[in-house]
Design goal:
Layout lengths: L13 E5 L3 H12 L3 E6 L4 H8 L3 E5 L12 E4 L4 H13 L3 E4 L12 E5 L2 E5 L6 H14 L4 H18 L3 H12 L2 H8 L3 H13 L7 E6 L10 H9 L2 E4 L5 H4 L7 E4 L11 H13 L3 E6 L9 H10 L4 E4 L4 H9 L11 E6 L10 H4 L4 E6 L5 H10 L7 E6 L7 E6 L3 H5 L6 E5 L6 H4 L3
Parallel strand pairs: 1-2, 1-4, 2-3, 4-5, 8-11, 8-12, 9-10, 9-11, 13-14
Antiparallel strand pairs: 6-7, 14-17, 15-16, 15-17
Helix pairs in contact: 5-6, 5-7, 7-8, 11-12
Bound molecules: S-adenosyl-L-homocysteine.
S-adenosyl-L-homocysteine binds next to helix 13 and strand 17.
Length: about 450
Amino acid sequence: MDYLPLFCQLRGKACLLVGGGEVAERKARLLLKTGANLRVCATHFSPQFQLWQQTGEVTLTEAHFSPGMIDECWLVIAATDNERVNQQVSEAAEAQRIFCNVVDAPEGASVIMPSIVDRSPLMIAISSGGTAPVMARLLREKIEAILPQHLGKMAAWAGSLRQRVKDQFSEMGQRRRFWEKVFNHDRLAQTLANQDAAQAEKLTEALFSEPLEHKGEVVLVGAGPGDAGLLTLKGLQQIQQADIVVYDRLVSDEVMELVRRDAERIFVGKRAGFHCVPQESINQILLEQAQRGKRVVRLKGGDPFIFGRGAEELEALLNADIPFSVVPGITAASGCSAYSGIPLTHRDYAQSVRLVTGHVQNNGSLDWENLAAEKQTLVFYMGLSQAGEIQQQLIAHGMESTMPVALVERGTSTQQRVVSGTLAELSTLATEVSSPALIIVGRVVALRERLRWF
Ligand code: SAH
């Protein structure tokens, strides 16, 4: 972290702005909003500054900058078009340990000004640490667009309720649940936007008097194959509201980064050399936590209903009458297909696609006859250790040994690797990649030559 974001209380505090032009005006406007006691020094002032002086909002000093001017200031901003002067201001501030912002020169400054989305009292500040201001600005525009204007009113309203909420709910979890109810209350938001205080009071009273839903629940969420951008919006909302997240090895670190910070995380995957937590124990964890009234997210790689044993976990909850829901995820086949440039179907080459488990031993034998048929794409999950068997059986059942195959390791992540060749080479290719990896068999694999992009 190169900069620590802070929100400064400047009301009534002396701040010095050096510069009297257009850029300085923009900074002045911002500082005036905070109620700062603004002094401006420049050799020439724009008409706006003159106006501000007449209305008593700023104090102007028409002079060259001198270090004495920053005495007793809390913040200094150098906004002249003269680099040398800006530098001088910055050095003087540094000498007195006063934070200083230098317009257009983050390297010469001890503070930088973020792009802001202002829904006071709610304030969002974005910074690229001076490296990519345009990116920060674009992000700001996006956030501006998705955040309703009335959000500030909602935040202010919440502020007025804080003490009462503290008094009424002793546990953190209860308070959080109450606040979530408040912030998800569309009608309350609309009422506040309409400035209908009486109605807002009424709705709020109802929120306080109805019981907080105390029954826990489990949400089975698909985390996608790796790239966090492939998580669904609903999945994101769920992991940000969870009390507890139960996850395994296939869930990427990138996705785990998005989990609500103070949610408890329980890892139930297999680590090299250790066995994974048995399925029954996982079922038990979900059950117990939900029975304690927790909002549990069971986060799984890919899609929870595709080779994810999601159904088994839900059965256990069903028996105990625990409410649950399921949020799908992008399964490895879709993710790997897209990121390797191998479409799974194609009008000329494949009219169907089959997702197959490579764990043949555990599932009895596969219907090799059907799998070897033409005009389809096969995607093997968990197939690495069985690559030899897959190769041998498909060829034995009539598939051409020149059929294109691809192995996609850690698909969609920045470490994605793809190796390809023919079916006859499959077992050798499998020794070149490590888990997790998918095996794709079919004529569509040849399209990668032209469609690879990642
Ligand atoms: N529910 C998951 C699959 C779990 S089975 C899903 O829908 O994707 C585990 C197998 O999935 C692994 O052995 C591997 O074959 C495949 N897999 C999962 N993530 C993968 C990834 N990022 N790249 C390649 N294969 C992956």
